[in-house]
Amino acid sequence: MDEPSQLLKNKRIFLLIFFFFLWSPPVWSIENNECLDCHGDTSLVRQQSEGMKEGLYVNNSQFILSVHNINGITCVDCHADIEKLEMDKDVPHATSLKSVDCSKCHEAEAKAYVNSVHKKAGGKGITIPCYACHGYHYVSNLEAESVIDRENGFCLKCHNPEKFHSWLPQMDTHFNFVECTVCHAENVPLFVNLRFWDFSKKRFLSGTEILTALKTNSTGFMPLIDKNKDNKIDADEFEQMVFKLRENNVFGTFHGELIVDLVPVVHHVNRGKANRECEQCHNPISPFFEDVVISLNKEDGDTDRHVVDRSVLSTYYVNHFYAIGGTRVRLLDKIGVAIVVGGISVVFGHLLARIVTIPTRTRRKEKEKEKKYGF
Amino acid sequence: MTENKLLYVHPAPVRVWHWINAAGIVLLVITGVQIRFIEMFDFFSLEEAINLHNYIGFLVIADYALWFAFYMGTGKIKIYFPNPKTFIQDCINQIKYYGGGIFKGDPNPHHMTPTNKFNALQKKAYLGLMFLFLPAQMLTGLFLWRVKKFQVYIDMFGGVKIIDTVHVLLFFFFAAFLIVHSYLATLGHTPLGHFKAMFTGYEEEH
Ligand code: HEM
Fold first, then answer.
1. CA-CA distances (angstroms) from residue B56 to A171, B18, B30, B59?
2. Which of A100, A102, A248, B82 has the least CB density, counted as fewest CB within 10 Å?
């Protein structure tokens, strides 16, 4: 116990520590490269008891693209019980490390996760840690992912939804356009995400590509599109945007999908709590289509979300998203009323004319009778 | 009455086809209204309406196949095709009749025979209906029935909203058609004459 005080008394050592803090702070934290000297080697495996081999390789080219690396999280931020590497040993760190605690940094998610069927499953001897869904080394930016990527990456790893949704017509269509958690996570905020499909490239354009096609950048986008400056792209402004894309020879169409917002409550998945009411969505005043956004991901991994008016869903610029009843084109209904009313008017007009002209016909018949029987 | 001859104009398969088709389309219109205007009507829940609509949709498709097989098999399909030489004049005559002559008590310029049972206007309407509108309605309905499965074809036509637009416009057309068609059917020699014939097969000739 008295060792530190002894050290502190030693002025030279005190200075050394001072300079140490001042000049070379990285020495305290271990750099990823040091770990990757060993773990960047695909052949690094360890023998497990049953004769099975466990790979200890970390693919750095994938790791550097992960949200964690982009946000400056290093190996030892997660593997926090490695404080130093003793390079003189075979294995420079403890061979049985503590499992990584994601909730250290993701407190709110961990709290939300407690109240979920998956966490509770832990009580039955099944452990579903965070990384069963998310993975760990290669966690990607979720915002930019499509419904299919999100579902394949998460729920479909463990569940076969075909078994549970026979009541839902066209379940595969729903699963393609509605993320599982939209129905399964209670009270989760959600929105319709619009994506632009390029006809000639035959793929979705990334946010940066859309900006380039509009000859603008992420700061210039809203001033260019949002002419009335209400921070919302309404149907007219949306149309102008499509025209601008066409002017620059970019032709395509918008797809839509219903996805959840990235907030901790997405983890509130519980049995018997899912949305089932069709009318919730298939209804022109459905709150599910209230928030519409166009997300433009930038090069630095961040994403700008721009609010779009819901009326855009009922235009012919979003042709690849249509929830019957819900996002219908109102103009069609007006045309329809005109067609049906037209039909009815013809019938009644004709009928009326026939009634009015009854006397003419009776007279004629009488005349014909007269002729025939010679009265 | 004894001077009226009975003409056999509607063979049994045609009568069966017609009434299944008629009932089918009426129900498709009703369930279709429920599906599209969910916030205004409450005949069925959306789930029920959709299930009914789909079953009846397939019934109508099967029924169309019956119609097609009968008319093609017997070669009677000819009656749907107007005679190009007289078509325009026939149409004019027929329009004059419905727009004027009928009020004065003129006889119908068209004479029904088993091999020529439709007048020129009917031919034109039924030809479009049976070879264009109904098939288009069936095809778009089929696509809407399994959006994911037919994704490739739907995308070829420009997206699910385009498919739906065709389906909905034709739906309004069919709704209007039902009304006009039923009315025109009362313009026979007696108001119920044509209806009876569609059940018995025999039309009275005067
Ligand atoms: C002439 C007869 C028909 C009429 C009047 C009709 C009418 C309608 C209407 C009004 C809708 C709602 C569209 C919307 O909300 O935007 C609809 C949807 C639909 N129709 Fe039809 N339809 C007819 C024939 C068919 C046929 C033959 C099929 C083939 C199976 C079909 C399959 C569908 C499907 C799958 C939907 C989407 C909702 C659902 O799954 O039921 N329809 N129809």
1. 20, 14, 11, 5
2. A248
ipTM: 0.91
Taking CA atoms only, the protein residue closest to ligand 1 atom 1 is B25
Q: What is residue A353's predicted lDDT score, i.e. its pLDDT?
A: 94
Pick the closest to residue A155 from A170, A127, A174, A134 (CA basis).
A134
Pairing of strands B5-8, B202-205: antiparallel
For residue range B19-34, list pLDDT tens digits in order: 999 999 999 999 999 9
Buried b (16+ CB within 10 A) or exposed e, A110-129: bebbeebebbeeeeeeeebb
Mutational pocket test of ligand 1: of B28, B34, B58, the residue with most ligand atoms within 8 Å of the beta carbon: B28
Residue nearest to atom 18 of ligand 1 (CA): B32
Question: Which residues of chain A from 281 to 310 reach within 8 Å of chain B, CB to CB?
Answer: 282-285
Token pair 């190009």 is at which residue?
Answer: B84
Please give, rounded to a whole number of angstroms, the shortest distance from the CA of B76 to a CA of chain A: 30
So what's the pLDDT on residue B65?
97
Task: Using the atom order of ligand 1, give the atom closest to the CA of residue B144.
Answer: 35
According to DSSP, residue A233 is labeled B
Is residue A60 within 8 Å of A75, Cβ to Cβ?
A: no
**Of residues A169, A320, A344, nearest to B179 (C-beta):** A344
The residue behind tokens 């045609």 is B14
Range of weakest confidence among A42-56, A236-250, A286-300, A319-333: A42-56
Structure confidence at residue A341 (pLDDT)? 98
CA distances from B120 to A227, A357, B81, B111 (A): 56, 25, 9, 11
pLDDT band at A86, cuts 50/70/90? confident
| Residue type (1 letter), B113 | T
Q: How close does chain B come to A281, measured CA to CA in Å?
A: 11
pLDDT at A27 over 60: no
Q: Spell out the alpha helix ranges (H) of B37-133.
A: 46-74, 87-96, 102-104, 120-128
Is the model's pLDDT at A24 over the cut of 80?
no
Q: What radius of gyration do chain A's Cα atoms show?
A: 33
Phi, psi of B176 (to 5 degrees): -70, -40
Q: Tell me: pLDDT of A226 over 80.
A: yes
Based on the number of CB atoms within 10 Å of its own CB, is A253 exposed (0-12), middle (13-18) or buried (19 or more)? Answer: buried
Q: Tens digit of pLDDT for each residue in A159-196? A: 999 989 999 999 999 999 999 999 999 889 999 999 99
Give me the pLDDT at residue B114, please: 85
Does the domain made of B6-204 have the CATH classification 1.10.3720.10?
no
Angle value at C-alpha B154, between B148 and A328, nearest 5 degrees: 85
CB atoms within 10 A of CB A327: 25
Judged by CB atoms closer than 8 Å, whether chains meet at B148 and A176 is answered as: yes
Domain ranges in chain B?
6-204
